[in-house]
Amino acid sequence: DAKANGRNGCRYYNPALTAEAVHRVELEAGLRRALAHDELVLMYQPQVEVRDGSIATVEALVRWQTPDGRLVPPLEFIPFAEECGLIDAIGSWVLRRACHDAAQWQRRGLDLRVAVNLSPVQFRASGLLDRIREALADSDLPAERLELEITESALMADDADTHATLAALRTLGIGIALDDFGTGYSSLSCLKRLPLDKLKIDRSFVSGLPDDVDNHAIVRAIVALARHLGFRIAAEGVETAAQAELLGELEADSLQGYLFSRAVPAAELEALASRRWPPARGTQFRIDFS
Ligand code: C2E
Ligand code: MG
Ligand code: MG
Ligand code: MG
To answer: For residue 57, which ligand has an atom nearest its CA?
Structure first.
């Protein structure tokens, strides 16, 4: 096959491949510059408690503010950063910034927990615990105010190291949420053994609600499973009042999505976080957009 490619020259002179290579080199240089010149920004999206409409947790979501004013979404650079080895530096920056902001909110009397996304690469890195301890100590943030969101792929190994890391984080007092739940391949028996606090139902299951009967059944099953195992349940990607209402009926614990708020800059969060939405359970869920 390589021979065939070599003969017609495609393999080595494909302009698309060259463009891709150039793009990667530029992206890596750009990300290094972003780290050096403080071009990354964290935005925060609230999770609304079904029980009383308050905000207990906010998720930190990174963006890259380029010098030409573009706000690059994480999916355009995080997967690449994982490949080229920059995820550790970016992840550390995110962790420190999130802890710093959360400590600031606490000093101003806001009772919030901050959730930080951890890539599987970070989760397996040997210095993870030290980094987290450092970030907490430097910002003076109690560990209970930090939650880490990991994905099923971080747990794929399901080995002694995975368990040890999770247990150590839990011992520190940090919460662990399993993000995008239902999209990966974690076995249910593995789930049973893991020290988790929260399952976040993936947006793809929420998006079809309330009409999609398959998604309805899936969400119901996830909630029942999570309840049984003693995990809290958050739903992501909640965009309509009808979805919120149904998730409230199905007894999810917290809801996150554009219905309530997009991710906002830290400065705007303070006003948002003291706001209270109507509780989603037991009442007709209505949002007052005025
Ligand atoms: P995620 O952790 O599942 O975060 C939720 C994503 O869904 C966010 O996209 C959020 O803006 C979006 N979202 C929230 N509510 C809604 C909604 O109602 N409708 C729709 N259509 N989307 C909604 P974002 O910020 O673009 O982040 C995408 C992914 O990038 C995240 O998915 C997470 O996997 C990753 N990511 C973001 N920040 C970080 C980070 O600091 N570190 C790492 N390792 N990954 C990150
Ligand atoms: Mg997340
Ligand atoms: Mg998620
Ligand atoms: Mg997601």
So the answer is: 2
Q: What ipTM, to 2 d.p.?
A: 0.98
From the CB of 175, is ligand 1 less than 6 Å away?
no
pLDDT of residue 289: 44
Is the distance from the beta carbon of residue 147 to the nearest atom of ligand 1 less than 6 Å? no
To which residue do tokens 């964290």 refer?
42
Residue nearest to atom 43 of ligand 1 (CA): 117
Contact 256, 236 (CB under 8 A): yes
State the pLDDT confidence band at 281, using cuts at 50, 70 and 90. low
Entry pTM:
0.92
